[in-house]
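Hi there,

I know you've been waiting on this one. I reran it after we fixed the sequence typo, so this is the corrected version. Both the input and the resulting structure follow.
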Amino acid sequence: MRRFKSHLVVMLCLAGLVGCAKPVEQRKEAVAIKDVPTDLLKLAKRSYPNYNFQSAFADVEGGQKVYKLMGKTKTGKIMELAITEQGEILK
C-alpha cells in the first residue's frame, strides 16, 4: 500500500509538471528591436505613427512566425502590435 501511495504522488507531480509546460508553438522569444525585419517595423510605424516601438518578441501562432511589438506614446499609452512575417497586422 505504501508503495502505491508513493507511485501515485510521483505520477501526480509529473502530471502537474506536464500540465504547466507551454506547447512549443506558444513560447515567446525576446528579440532586439533592431532584429525585427525592417519592412515590418516600417509598417508598424506607418500604421501607428504616435507609437514608439521599444521591444519585440517572436512567437509562433497557427504555424506562422509573428512579431509582437511593444509600443508606447508620449502620453504613456502602451500597445502590443502583432505582425506576421508576411506583413499582416493581427492586432
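Quick highlight: The helical segments are 2-20, 38-47.

Best,
R. S.
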